[in-house]
Amino acid sequence: FARHGSHTFVKTESSTLAFSAFMALLIGCAGIVATLASNSQAILLDGLFNLIYFSVALVTIKVSKLASRPDSESYPFGYSYFESLVNLCKGLLIFGVSIFALVDAVAALLTGGREISAGLAVIYALFATAACSLTAWVMQRSQRHVSSPLVAADKFNWLVNSVISGAVLAAFCLVMLFEHLGWRAVLPYVDSVLVIAVVVLCLGVPVRMASQALRELLNKTPEEAVAEPVRQAVARGLADIDTLEVRVRMVRPGRLLYVIVHVVLPKDLPEATLANQDALRQRIDEEVRRYYSPVVCDVVFTADNRWAAPSCGLLVDTHASSPTNNA
After folding, report:
1. 106-115 pLDDT per residue, tens
2. Which of 41, 177, 257, 278 is an S-S bond match for 295, by CB 3.0 to 4.6 Å?
């Protein structure tokens, strides 16, 4: 931790997430108040986004504390899956609100649009842009000291929020310009067009967030940028060992990478004592940790390749399998 309070604040995961939650609540409440005063659905959409993030952020803070705990009798593989679950909920909630706002905006366009108070809308958009940019900056600084998928997801959210708020600000400035030029016929449609544009441009964000979290919950192998260096690390750990087959399997729920390595050794290998096996486990674990942490690395040695073959718990024909190196 840093010596000064402001630096210490951005160096802890829980305090960073608490700051994110507070800012989401602040902007969300301001958005609801500004909506009542300006009648802008674009501001309502922004306010709802932030209130959703605040509600999920309360759960996120709890999950961030759980994720750092060791496994237990109730959760024998730890709590990292809760991180993926939270990100999936975030993505689905934002997607739902976006679709609702899109349908409402299209309906407003088809019924003649809606009048808004541009002056109040500009004040809110200016405040929201500054607040979102500040929060994104705090998230970025915290990532120098905290390796957390929860903080990373929050930073991405605040960056998108900053862009959305900036676009809303620019659009409402155009409304004031149109009023000054006397182009009143187009004014009722600006707010609805803005909502549609924001939803269409940003809809990919919750979809990507939810799909990534869903892949983690379904135990899909991580992307090659993570998986390939781990495979190479395992190969280096076993470089001077005579092996018949090596299978590397891995999943990454949240921040934790879980790696299980099955090593098939010759039956007559004289070095295959328990002490040597433990030494190999230690070496493989150290090699993997050079590329990724936190990690749980289980290494299983066997002389029968049926214990390493893909089976999902079912019996397989071990004679049909050939020595390979797979993930």
Report:
1. 887 887 777 7
2. 257
Query: Which residue, chain included where needed, has tokens 């909630």?
Result: 93
184 confidence band (pLDDT: 50, 70, 90) = confident
Report the candidate in 199, 173, 225, 16 with the shortest Cα–Cα distance to residue 94.
199
Condensed to tens digits (0 to 9), the pLDDT of residues 125-143 reads 899 999 999 998 988 888 7
What is the SS3 assignment for 305?
helix
Residue 230 structure tokens: 């781990």
Q: What three-state secondary structure class fits 212?
A: helix
- Those residues with Cβ within 8 angstroms of residue 260's Cβ, 6 or more apart along the chain or in another chain: 248, 249, 250, 297, 298, 299, 300
pLDDT at 263: 93
d(CA 302, CA 245): 10
CA–CA separation, 188 and 112 (whole Å): 7
25-70 pLDDT per residue, tens: 999 999 888 888 877 777 887 888 788 878 888 887 888 778 778 7
Cβ count within 10 A of residue 43: 30
Q: Quickly list H helices, 68-148.
A: 81-110, 118-142
Contact present, 136 and 158 (Cβ < 8 Å)? yes
Asked whether 198 and 42 are in contact (CB, 8 A), the reply is: yes
Spatial distance between the Cα atoms of 29 and 35, rounded to a whole number of angstroms: 10
* pTM above threshold 0.90: no
